[in-house]
Amino acid sequence: MSMWLSLARVSPESLATIRANPDLLDILFFEVDAKAAARLGVAPEHCCGVDFLSLSAAHEAMAEAMGEDAPDDVLEADLDPTGELDFDAGYGPGFFLDPAATKAALEGSMIPEMDDEARHVMESAAAEGAALVGVVS
What we know:
Layout: E1 4-10, H1 12-20, H2 25-29, H3 34-39, E2 47-51, H4 52-65, H5 74-78, E3 83-88, E4 93-97, H6 99-108, H7 111-114, H8 116-128, E5 131-136
Antiparallel strand pairs: 1-2, 1-5, 3-4, 4-5
């Protein structure tokens, strides 16, 4: 079994569009449509994926090392999403981080340390005042 955390950097304007029509996540992560994604301002280098089970294991190991319980919701513990999107990719609803939460996640998430591509997506989003959208599939 595998679980994949997919993220995409989007402008605040595109986030508003996606919040109004969450099915647009399908063209970013599953039925990739480069032209439609480009209309949202999303290029391939604005997207990344991280092994969600590895992220969960890292959180469990960190909690154990600190003598704490593992988090019940790894996504919440790691990224602290701003909100949910009405799109189910298999393991819960889609989610988004507004620009402020994106900057906070860059500093507090384990993801940038686990994956260079994800670090680049998150750093560029934070630097540009962009948001992140994502799914776990």
